[in-house]
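Is guanosine-5'-diphosphate placement plausible here? Inputs below.
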Amino acid sequence: MDLIEYKAKEVFKKYGLPTPRGLLVRSASDINSIEKIAPRVVLKAQVPIGGRGKAGGIRFASSTEEARSKAAEMLGMSIKGFKVGSILVEEALDVGKELYLSVTIDRGARDHLIIGASEGGVEIESLPDEKLIKVHVRPLAGLHPYQVRDIVKKYPLSTDQQRALGDILRKLFTLYVKEDATLAEINPLVLTKDGRLIAADAKLSIDDDALFRHKEYEKVETDLTPLELKAKQKGIALIQLDGRIGVIANGAGLTMATLDSLELYGGKGGVFMDLGGTDDAEMVREAFLLLVEADPSVILMNLFGGITKCDTVAEGIKGALSNLEKSIPTVVRIRGLNEERAREILRDAGFVPCETMAEAAKTAVEMERKLGGR
Ligand code: GDP
Ligand code: MN
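Reply from A.M.:
I modeled the complex. Tokens:
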């Protein structure tokens, strides 16, 4: 789970990391007066993606009016596909130098990895290896003082600033371990003209498998749509794309292949879900109901009865879906044991059964075209 910047900064603050003074706003009128923050502020679009600067998601303002009008422009705009719903208004830092510092997992080495660089503000991937400071930390041993000293010495900073950086590194590492993070990154770590080190940006990814230990993140905003979130809470893998054809398949591979087939025939996948190995009628019904909430114009079901018999699955689908309020044209391709019988059942229930994936995808695309403009 990736935390959005303002949330990551709240966690940073909890661990005593220096962050800029700021305020989260969801409308321009939330900005009463920038004076309480700073005479000059930076407005930062809260979207779960980097490179906001170039995309118009980072702007500066020197008066309350200017901040309000820029906030109004930014709210609702789309940055790399993410709609801006909130803005972090922060004191603008007087940047002397931009540095980089992060802690992440090196799975290959089975260790934690600290990465530092005296050039920040750019994507770390774009820096050549010789500019990176890399130090592995063994999970059982933890971060040793000598490692901290080694790292901070490589930054061209004064002794006091190196000491401050060491403090930041220790706190960042503690945060990373205690919060079960897979990445804790400060980019840029700003050295202000008056010599202070401040985390101008914050990126924090929490290990999904450790979320049971961190109930505080349950209600946190993510990049999921409300429907995706609802599905997630029910344990259903559902994703919303911007096409109009809803897809239900079983297994991640088959689901991806189905979306690709739609593209091949000139269509576009909309909301899609992976049923996994289930043939539980109640689960199928729930999944279908969720899919319907996304209002697809056509539904394409692509199921492979591996262990379960296709006719049993078909009966399940039929039974589960017969009492839906709204009917949406549904193309079904189902393969496996007793597939002929399954197709008969589905045809009788008003579905459009197909034999091959290609035929099903083509049929779904054609149906969607005919319904076009809906
Ligand atoms: P990202 O590009 O989405 O990762 O957003 P960042 O928060 O890292 O900001 C991008 C860039 O905007 C930084 O590298 C800085 O150059 C600049 N920036 C961000 N905050 C400030 C600030 O308070 N003062 C100044 N002068 N520049 C800032
Ligand atoms: Mn950044």
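Short version: The longest helix spans residues 159-178.
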